[in-house]
Write a structure and sequence with these properties.
single chain; seven-stranded mixed sheet; about 35% helix; alpha/beta; 7 strands; Glycerol-3-phosphate (1)-acyltransferase
Length: about 210
């Protein structure tokens, strides 16, 4: 937990130094207890941006390919979780559940990889963690600018451009039955997708952005 707090402080400095974050709805994040952030993923800065602007330290599940060279000990040191997406990574699952059992915040990109960032296709991992732990999900929409003049690095917003981060209302993914069957997880995934899509549409209206890449 201390490592994640250090990561949050580093994220604050980097994100506010390089871009102009505008944060909406941070007050909706529960002040204590386990929480899962479900974040759309269209930019490489999505994770660091949420880490920097969220009101609580966040432990993100991050693909193992990102843990290269000096980034490996750095990411582990700031409380981030390495996951092998090619298999059912038991170690990562145990660590993620441990974060929630200890009342922490787990960050997940439910689409599984960087893409359109529109929550169009979700993996079952988010539903599994939510149903298994009982932790509420807080949808997070990161709306930035990655295709305008001034962009120096592909898939990154231009430096000093505005990036909006919109936190939604927390909600429970389960149906109250406590079931963890494949059917129950599929049904939970469907409910989650509707909630996340609705949040993204609302975030676009609030910020005046029509697309995550606008």
């Amino acid at each position: 937990m201390r490592g994640a707090e250090v990561g949050r402080r580093i994220g604050v400095g980097l994100m506010y130094g390089l871009w102009k974050p505008r944060v909406l709805g941070a007050w909706r994040v529960p002040a204590s207890g386990p929480v899962i952030f479900a974040v759309n993923h269209s930019h490489n800065i999505d994770g660091p941006m949420v880490m920097g602007v969220a009101p609580r330290p966040t432990h993100f599940l991050i693909k193992k390919e990102a843990f290269v060279g000096p980034l490996d000990p750095f990411l582990l040191g700031i409380g981030q979780l390495k996951v092998d997406r090619s298999t059912a990574d038991r170690a990562a699952i145990t660590q993620a559940l441990g974060v929630l059992e200890n009342g922490g915040v787990l960050g997940i990109f439910p689409e599984g990889t960087r893409g359109e960032g529109d929550f169009a296709a979700l993996r079952a991992g988010l539903a599994y963690f939510a149903v298994r732990s009982g932790a509420p999900i807080v949808p997070v929409a990161v709306l930035g600018s990655s295709d305008r003049p001034g962009r120096l690095i592909k898939a990154l917003p231009p430096l000093r451009s505005r990036v909006d981060v919109v936190f939604g209302d927390p909600y429970e993914a389960g149906d109250g039955s406590g079931r963890r069957t494949r059917k129950a997880l599929d049904e939970a995934t469907e409910r989650i997708q509707k909630q996340l899509t609705a949040h993204l549409e609302n975030a676009r209206r609030l910020t005046g952005r029509q697309d995550t890449l606008e």
